[in-house]
Recover the amino acids of this structure.
């Protein structure tokens, strides 16, 4: 399981303040903390407090990579901000994200190719989040076929089937699980799959329990990655346990620690 | 395994005409992948697309049969890169080569030696099943004579090694009914060779100079409508053979690349027999369908190779067992020696056996048939109960004639079965240690005293 730490996001007050004041410290602290907890990627989102500009994204990437040696997921829909982030990023960057709209893909995919980046593709277009798994899978296919035409390896594409909060959009969760299964069959080698996990429990009671339970279900369906609260220990324990039960990691008595060490 | 949506989409005409039903070629490709549509709904579908879909339903590696009678073998038909993922199915054929320059008497002597290369291992008779006759003389008649001598002296499956169609034609006139492998079709002779293979319905080896030329050549042979093939990438250096074998297996299984979807043949080329056997062991482990040796002729040389082959092709999904319900002797036991009960799971049996012999004890061990499960697993599944063990001891083994005491030792973990076992066998049941590592000290401190009791 590829864990993408969600915490460096301007919608959290401490990060929002830090970005506004150009104060690297809270950002770098969260970078270290999330990696120690088991994350391998760090999502970076400017948030609502300041304008989502190329300069801010560039600063954010540099601040993070000054402190830690980890790839950053550039979380923005602003293509100029993505390009600015890619320019300064060390190693393989991830772009979070695009939808299946053709004009977006036409602009973004050459950048993905040029920088050998990874790309999160949302299984939707301007008509919104699809209701059923068939439409989600079709949108995913649109992204995959376009990426393939640009010569981008399937392993660099992460399809996000879009999970919605279970309290207001309960019927979506099973469709998302089905989409994960379907997407793994679209190409060989298969594209990867990713979820914005915390979305499933927005404004619900027992958020952590909901996150953890859905995570395990999604892993059983073939999920490869999640943007999530890396410092939720119960969640990481559940992931480590699911990896054992799926036969992805070899069992040992200290499997909870091993997962954190090796991821 | 079917084709993925993306693979199908790339083969579609990209016209988005909608005549197939779905609005776009992309949507049609996804319906095809899910089995919800048929390819002939598309008005512009190409032959290439049809072939691709056919390829998806065929097994990744053809199964090719050769030889007749006891020595008929099937090679190929494999689906795995690593045996632990499922199993390797068809053991590779192992051949020794005989040169047609050696003269009839020497050939007959050599064949006699090869016929004698046989041994028994874990209850199976293992033999060397193939002989390759090599046309070193470059003379067709000499070759045909040599093939005749070999065929008269052995039942084993033949490989006819010559690139001269006249030599192969002459040899086939003698031995075609034994379904030999023809080696080999190359760029210069493939049309004649393919014709001969077709007429005689014999498997044909195709040899390239490297992987690229091999793939080109198999395509040409397949275009002549023959696919009863074995392939050779032409390399003889161990590292290159290993690389080629790996690429061939990966391409055929992972990419469904049909031109190399056939069993392979490899040839050793080494200075010493020891090196040759190591080379051959590598090829057996790494996907070879047939391995041809050129120097090994002694049992001591081929025994390790055939043992490697047997081990590598053992099904890892089935527990390895020892023959159950009989008395095994460790050391030199006599009528006062202890009797141990365990299960026929080989790991359990050999753990006990190892600790008994490691402790320099003389003893009898009776492995009970638990379908190859361990002591606790067998007990939990009701395959290792006191009644059953008692019946097997007294009715199926001769242990009562071998010892003058009536004391049997059971694993400590199943102490609870001792009552039923005593009832069923009439023997005194001694509960041994839970772990067999405790056997030597258990015997040292208890056995004399128990015997006297």
């Amino acid at each position: 399981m590829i864990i993408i730490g969600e915490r460096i996001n301007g919608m959290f007050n401490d990060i929002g303040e830090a970005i506004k004041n150009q104060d690297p410290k809270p950002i770098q602290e969260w970078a270290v903390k999330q990696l120690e907890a088991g994350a391998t990627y760090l999502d970076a989102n400017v948030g609502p407090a300041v304008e989502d500009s190329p300069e801010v994204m560039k600063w954010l990437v540099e601040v993070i990579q000054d402190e830690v040696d980890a790839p950053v997921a550039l979380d923005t829909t602003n293509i100029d901000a993505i390009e600015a982030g890619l320019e300064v990023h060390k190693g393989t960057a991830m772009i979070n994200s695009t939808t299946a709209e053709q004009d977006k893909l036409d602009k973004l995919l050459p950048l993905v190719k040029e920088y050998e980046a990874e790309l999160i593709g949302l299984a939707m277009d301007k008509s919104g989040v699809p209701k059923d798994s068939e439409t989600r899978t079709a949108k995913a296919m649109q992204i995959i076929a376009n990426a393939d035409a640009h010569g981008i390896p399937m392993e660099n594409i992460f399809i996000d089937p879009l999970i919605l909060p279970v309290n207001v959009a309960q019927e979506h969760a099973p469709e998302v699980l089905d989409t994960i299964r379907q997407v793994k069959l679209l190409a060989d080698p298969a594209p990867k799959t990713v979820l914005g996990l915390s979305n499933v429990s927005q404004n619900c009671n027992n958020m952590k329990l909901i996150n953890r339970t859905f995570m395990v279900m999604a892993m059983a369906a073939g999920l490869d990655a999640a943007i999530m609260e890396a410092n939720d220990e119960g969640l990481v324990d559940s992931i480590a346990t699911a990896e054992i039960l799926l036969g992805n990691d070899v069992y040992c008595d200290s499997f909870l620690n091993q997962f954190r060490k090796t991821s | 395994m079917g084709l993925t949506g993306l693979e199908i989409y790339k083969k579609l005409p990209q016209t988005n005409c909608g005549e197939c039903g779905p609005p776009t070629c992309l949507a049609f490709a996804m319906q095809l992948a899910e089995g919800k549509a048929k390819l002939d709904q598309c008005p512009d579908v190409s032959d290439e697309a049809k072939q691709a879909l056919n390829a998806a339903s065929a097994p990744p590696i053809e199964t090719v049969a050769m030889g007749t009678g006891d020595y008929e073998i099937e090679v190929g038909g494999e689906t795995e890169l690593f045996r632990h993922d499922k199993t390797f199915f068809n053991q590779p054929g192992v051949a020794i080569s005989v040169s047609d320059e050696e003269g009839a008497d020497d050939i007959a002597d050599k064949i006699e030696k090869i016929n004698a290369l046989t041994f028994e291992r874990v209850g199976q008779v293992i033999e060397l099943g193939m002989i390759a006759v090599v046309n070193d003389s470059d003379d067709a008649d000499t070759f045909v004579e040599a093939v005749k001598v070999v065929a008269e002296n052995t039942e084993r499956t033949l490989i006819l090694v010559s690139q001269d169609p006249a030599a192969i034609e002459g040899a086939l006139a003698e031995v075609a009914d034994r379904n030999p492998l023809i080696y080999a079709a190359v760029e210069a002779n493939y049309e004649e060779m393919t014709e001969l293979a077709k007429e005689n319905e014999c498997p044909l080896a195709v040899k390239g100079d490297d992987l690229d030329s091999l793939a080109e050549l198999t395509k040409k042979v397949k275009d002549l409508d023959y696919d009863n093939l074995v392939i050779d990438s032409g390399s003889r250096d161990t590292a290159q053979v290993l690389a080629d074998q790996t690429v061939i297996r990966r391409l055929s299984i992972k990419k469904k690349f049909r031109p190399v979807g056939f069993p392979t043949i490899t040839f050793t080329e080494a200075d010493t027999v020891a090196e040759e056997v190591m080379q051959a062991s590598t090829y057996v482990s790494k996907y070879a369908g047939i391995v041809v040796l050129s120097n090994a002729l002694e049992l001591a040389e081929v025994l390790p190779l055939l043992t490697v082959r047997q081990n590598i092709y053992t099904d890892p999904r089935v527990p390895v067992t020892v023959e159950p319900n009989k008395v095994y002797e460790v050391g030199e036991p006599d009528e006062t020696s202890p009797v141990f009960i365990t299960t026929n799971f080989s790991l359990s049996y050999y753990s006990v056996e190892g600790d008994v012999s490691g402790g320099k004890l003389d003893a009898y061990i009776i492995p009970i048939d638990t379908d190859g499960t361990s002591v606790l697993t067998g007990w939990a599944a009701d395959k290792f109960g006191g009644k059953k063990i008692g019946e097997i001891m007294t009715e199926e083994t001769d242990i009562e004639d071998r010892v003058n005491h009536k004391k049997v030792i059971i694993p400590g973990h199943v102490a609870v079965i001792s009552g039923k076992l005593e009832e069923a066998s009439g023997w005194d049941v001694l509960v041994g240690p839970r772990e067999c590592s405790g056997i030597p000290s258990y015997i040292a401190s208890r056995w004399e005293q128990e015997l006297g009791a």
Q: What stands out?
A: The longest helix of chain B spans residues 238-254. The mean pLDDT of chain B is 93. Chain B has three domains: 5-57, 63-313, 328-451. Residues 5-57 of chain B form a domain with the 3-methyladenine DNA Glycosylase II; Chain A, domain 3 fold (CATH 1.10.15.40).
